[in-house]
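Thread: "does anyone have the structure for this chain?"

Original post by V.I.:
We have the sequence but no experimental structure in hand. Need at least a predicted one for the grant figures.
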Amino acid sequence: MKHPFKLSKSNIIYASIVALITLLFNIRIYGFDAYVIGLSIGSLFGIIIIPTLIALLFWFVLGKKEKGGTTAFNIVLTLMLFGSISEFGQIAKEREKPIDDLKEAVSEYKEKTLANPDSTDTNYSELSTDIKKSIDDLIKTSVGEERKVFITLKKYFKKADSVNIAWNNAYNAFAEPRILDFTILNEKGEYKFQKKIIQEYINESKNFKSFVQNRVEYLKTQTKNIDRNNKSYKGFIKGLTNKDSIQKPIFIPYINGHIEYGQGINKIIELLENEQGKWSYENETETLTFENSETQITYEKILNDAISNEEIVNKLSDKLVEIM
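Reply from O.Q.:
Generated one for you, tokens below.
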């Protein structure tokens, strides 16, 4: 006797269980937002339609018997569940890898930079490349609000990277042997050139300081259209805020040391220019002597302050690397 095609109660219950498991997996991986709801609804249709079509086929093959195809429905549904579990496991690994790669890149940067401070530029370039790749990978494996968070993170890092590179370039120019080389400070053009380089170093140091002081608020502004309850957003902001509270007490004195050191060197250049022809430099003893005793006292005070700031910078430099 032929019977109409109909899923059994056990089919419906089992399908509901599989749908719930799929929903929980989606929430566990992607969080809970409108995208995940849509994704889960789509998965639900897949869970129902594909096994149902195959069950319908078996119902025909079995001669339209009562409950024909119900076993096939459960078998297909089970295979789909195992496939989904495997897929979720792969997705989880793909999502964890960029984070692991990022942690490894930071760890390598610390190790290399502390071991060889002179290679900081090269090390940072490698770190920057690794961070960009990790963020791109996170974007590829994320969805919904979480993806918005990582896209914003990419924009934030691009900004932070540009600020750091601009400062680093200014610092490298300032650190050239030509700056404060008393043997070539004998014409107006050279004074002008050196003051320009020093001022750029001071300006970029101030810009760097301003960025770090305001980076949390900057990021909050950039993420104003992201759901504040999203777990990725919460984790991201919390992580940055915590790191900011650790780094800022060291970074601010560090960058202030750079600013004040640059200002001190600039004052020395101006002093030399104003006293042109009234000072001499002994190369062997590295002694600068002004004819005017008051100017000499002023110079020595500026120099001592500059040396103090240089010591602060050197002292805090390694600490900044350690707390990255």
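V.I.: this helps a lot. The chain has two domains: 1-103, 142-324.
O.Q.: and The radius of gyration is 32 Å.
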